[in-house]
Design brief:
649 residues, binds zinc ion, mainly alpha, 57% helix
Length: 649
């Protein structure tokens, strides 16, 4: 189906072609030929005639290397200023809906939360022809070319290739704005999807969760499940709630509403046990809206003609087939049974589906979470208290004092309305932002653990911008790689509380493995849902719900049912990312795979060596994943290292 769709778009795009715009032109070299042909592919009638195109090339193709380098410098500076100012505006506009300290968001704040400051930028840069000047002189190289030619490139050449990635498609502003709006709608839906746990009742009328407990789906529900291993009744109830959400059987009136009692087993409401009115496929309509918006973009992206290709070959820079192959290799490995056996032995019972979130491997499982929370509440009563401790946390990891202080200076901590997140700095006048949810009585351990994760993002963001040799190389290969830094930090959360150095011990290996197993399953569901959407473009929200349940059950039956039981379980479809951030989930397991390889390279290092390696890696910048791995650890992306670690025990 994907190949068929691609063919259709390409032939439609070709019907109007007469002789090429560059007919009769002479190319000084391969780069010029590449640049001219790529510029011609995006040139439209309104941009000028064939003669005007050729005159434009004559006027703007750099004649000398000095001219070309000067152009590169100018364009890099322009890119930074455009990115940065658009980002600063977005940050300001989103504050009321994203942060707690900006008052209650008004209706117009919610509307503006879907506004994209850069939606018209591409149009403008094509209109004033800066885009064409860029393409002409700094053409695009495909993923395959980057992975082969790129192994021999200098830093300058890599930076030029990244400049060549900026203008590869020409999507009209209204199409981009529509996508931004549908994503924001889904985000707002997810950010308010709370379950009032104190209103849940067992069938015999008992309340299992404390008064006032309100949990955001799916993050808080999952995290509560993780800490309820001494209370199986609570876990079973959360599992039941999750299934009601995925199947869209949840009564609409119990969502984010603490006025209604809900019996999730019989799915009735109020003390009279009345059947509630179900939430009518809103969850799936949000996904469908995003799909339709993505589809509208397809014809404008000749090199990457659907959302799946744009996500994997474009954003992640690993083809979807390769990602799936890596995931299936781990999911179907014998090691799954070995680790499942470990969990079973520890629990002393048969496994249940929600044991995909078994949390007993971490070092902290031996520690009392209430005690840890007491400590974190005292240390971090508010965001500022956390912000002030960042430098000393970095020296704890091995960073030199001045270096740690310099990095910390570029990070601000802010109180999040939804779940915690990191907001990167994209220009040299911006800080990286750590957003965290802190209760009135301070940061509990769960919140602290997430904050440390987000701080890992922020530190990478600061190093890969402020310590980067080329602006065009800022960042890391893909989002999964940003998670590696977050994991490296999160994995050392107790060390940062003063409990001694943490390394990847056997418990951590099991933990990482089980985490990969779980999220690879969730990712496969997400990926297969999008393949299904492109194969069924006319589907309704109800069709999508049915298909998602089938896909989730199929992935479950293939890779999870053999060790966790319960045929046709649909739990893997609970992740909120599937609703507001399509195909983002595969980034996490990719991040886990890389993180595991990096952890191996860090094993046995002194604190100073640790910080040195860390900084060297995150100064490599936005190479492709393959090339980055070669330069960082002299290897390729592989699940074999983690599989070997489990086998050898
Ligand atoms: Zn993260």
């Amino acid at each position: 189906m994907m190949a068929g769709l691609m063919m259709m778009i390409m032939t439609t795009g070709c019907t109007k072609q007469t002789s090429p715009l560059y007919e009769g032109m002479e190319f000084a070299d391969e780069r010029m030929e590449r640049g001219v042909k790529q510029a011609a592919a995006l040139w439209r009638e309104e941009d000028g005639t064939k003669e005007e195109f050729q005159a434009f090339v004559d006027a703007h193709y750099a004649k000398t290397e000095e001219e070309r380098l000067a152009l590169f410098e100018s364009l890099s500076r322009i890119m930074e200023k455009l990115n940065e100012s658009a980002d600063m505006l977005t940050v300001e506009l989103l504050k009321p809906t994203q942060l707690m300290n900006c008052g209650e968001p008004t209706e117009v704040d919610w509307i503006m939360s879907g506004y994209s400051a850069s939606a018209h930028m591409m149009d403008d840069l094509f209109a004033n022809k800066v885009a064409f000047i860029t393409i002409l002189n700094f053409p695009y190289y495909s993923l395959e070319e980057k992975n082969t030619l790129g192994t021999q490139w200098t830093r300058q050449q890599w930076a030029e290739a990244r400049l060549g990635d900026v203008f590869t498609e020409r999507v009209p502003a209204n199409v981009q704005a529509l996508l931004a709006q549908t994503l924001a709608n889904a985000e707002n839906y997810i950010a308010d999807y709370n379950i009032c746990m104190d209103k849940l009742r067992t069938e015999d009328g008992r309340q299992l969760f404390p008064d006032g407990m309100k949990l955001l789906s799916h993050w808080n529900l999952r995290d509560e499940l993780k800490v309820d291993y001494d209370a199986p009744e609570k876990q079973e109830m959360i599992y039941q709630v999750m299934q009601r959400i995925v199947r869209q059987e949840i009564p609409e009136e119990v969502i984010n509403n603490d006025n209604v009692i809900w019996y999730p087993y019989s799915n009735t409401v109020t003390s009279d046990h009345i059947p509630g009115e179900r939430e009518a496929d809103v969850r799936y309509q949000k996904i469908l809206d995003i799909f339709h918006a993505m589809q509208q973009m397809d014809p404008y992206c000749p090199n990457k003609p659907n959302a799946i290709i744009r996500n994997f070959e474009g954003d992640i820079e690993i083809p979807a087939e390769e990602v799936e192959r890596l995931f299936v290799e781990l999911l179907s490995s014998e090691q799954v049974r070995i680790v499942a056996q470990q969990i079973k032995a520890r629990l002393g019972r048969e496994l249940r589906p929600y044991d995909i979130w078994f949390d007993g491997f971490k070092a902290r499982s031996g520690m009392n979470e209430d005690q840890l929370s007491e400590q974190t509440r005292q240390l971090y009563p508010n965001p500022l208290a956390y912000e002030k401790k960042i430098a000393s946390m970095l020296t704890n990891l091995g960073f030199q004092k001045e270096n740690a202080e310099e990095i910390a200076r570029h990070i601000v901590v802010e109180p999040a309305r939804g779940s915690g997140h990191a907001w990167p700095c994209v220009g040299h006048n911006e800080p990286a932002r750590l957003r965290t949810r802190i209760a009135a009585d301070g940061m509990d351990y769960k919140g602290y653990n997430i904050a440390v994760h987000e701080m890992g993002h922020n530190v990478e963001e600061v190093i890969s911008l402020y310590k980067m040799d080329y602006y065009m190389l800022r960042g890391i290969p893909n989002t999964g790689f940003t998670e590696t830094s977050a994991f490296l930090f999160q994995h050392r959360d107790l060390q940062l509380l003063g409990y001694g150095r943490q390394e990847m011990d056997q418990e951590a290996v099991y933990d990482a493995f089980w985490g990969m197993y779980e999220i690879m399953g969730v990712s496969l569901v997400d990926m297969h849902v999008w393949q299904w959407l492109y194969a069924h473009p006319k589907a309704s929200a109800a069709d999508l719900r049915k298909a998602t349940l089938e896909i989730a059950a199929e992935v479950w039956n293939n890779y999870f049912e053999p060790v966790l039981g319960e045929k046709d379980c649909i739990l893997l479809a609970i992740y909120s990312h599937m609703v507001n951030c399509p195909m983002y989930l595969p980034n996490y397991p990719i991040g886990h795979i890389v993180q595991f390889q990096l952890e191996e390279a860090l094993a046995g290092t002194s604190p100073a060596e640790w910080a040195e390696k860390y900084e060297r890696w995150y100064r490599l910048g936005r190479l492709t994943p393959n090339v980055w791995m070669q330069q960082a650890v002299d290897g390729e992306l592989s699940v074999q290292p983690v599989l070997r670690r489990i086998q050898s025990n």
